[in-house]
Amino acid sequence: MKTYNNHPHWHNQPLRLTKEQKRDPLPVLDDFFECYHLNDVRQILWQWLTTVISSHQSISNDALDRDNHLYFYEKIEGIIEAAYVMKRKLLKHRRKVEKRRLKKSSQPENIQYVKTPEHFKSNATGLAAENVVNGEVFNKPKQLLEFVDEAPIYVITQVFKSESLAFLRDQLRDWLHVALSADSTIYDDGEQRRQLLSFQDHLLVIVEALFVIYIQNKNKIAEKEIVDTDKPRLLSQDQIDNPMQVITSFFEKFPMVYIVRELYDWLEASFCFGGTYPDNMDKLQALNIYRNVLCLITAADRLLSI
User: Fold this and answer.
1) d(CA 84, CA 72)
2) Which residues pair with 140 in a beta bridge?
3) How far apart are CA 143 and CA 282, in angstroms?
4) Residue 257: exposed, middle, or buried by beta-carbon count in 10 A (0-12, 13-18, 19+)?
5) What per-residue confidence (pLDDT) applies to 88?
6) Source organism's superkingdom (predicted)?
7) CB within 8 A of 125, min separation 6: which ones?
8) Could you give the CA distance from residue 118 to residue 116 in angstroms, rounded to a whole number?
């Protein structure tokens, strides 16, 4: 039932909760998270967002409206995660209080410190391409993308040495937000927005698979030192054990010619964005994530032909 109304006294008052629930909201949180796991909530919210953003003649045809919906989606997802954390803390606190009442000593928690690996910037230079004209030497060091044919694993390694998996995830999220919120771009069309949303979904999965390949090519000690934020979230255990199947499925769905065009349109849209960029995202960062993704995808395509 709709609770939205225009009565000024009710604008900032809970209307769905009973008096008992207002006094003690924990049962409301318990009931919600018994019905929906966090991942269920994320999936439902994402389905809502993609439908709203990509539908023709919808309330999101205007770039500013899309920006507002994306912003609202992120805030709703954040507040649900905060509610989940609060629920766990409240339950934990109440258990401790109950234990004190029963005069039972609580067990101290063992805190494990995870060593965070340092991420070094790639300094790959490669052989210079030279051309001598009238005594002048024109040369430039090889770009990382130029190593793909001869050493795709090296390219993947250099990307993940430069940027953590968690940082790449965040940048892909912000890059998507910026592109969909830009005005006068190819993403003014609902079908193009739908394709980009679908592509980004699958892109996050293949990036995790490539990160697994990167880890597999390092020693086991380095694998143990991976921080929690850098661990794959979207891959099943079977996909972690065999990341090449993820790469194969990705290219069965998305041909390389489409990928190159989509990434270019994505980059162009991010340059057209006229609003306030999210933290850790600007035009230069958009170019950087574009280059990293292009290197990863091109290297993945090369792995299939080896």
Assistant:
1) 18
2) 129
3) 22
4) exposed
5) 81
6) Bacteria
7) 141, 142
8) 6
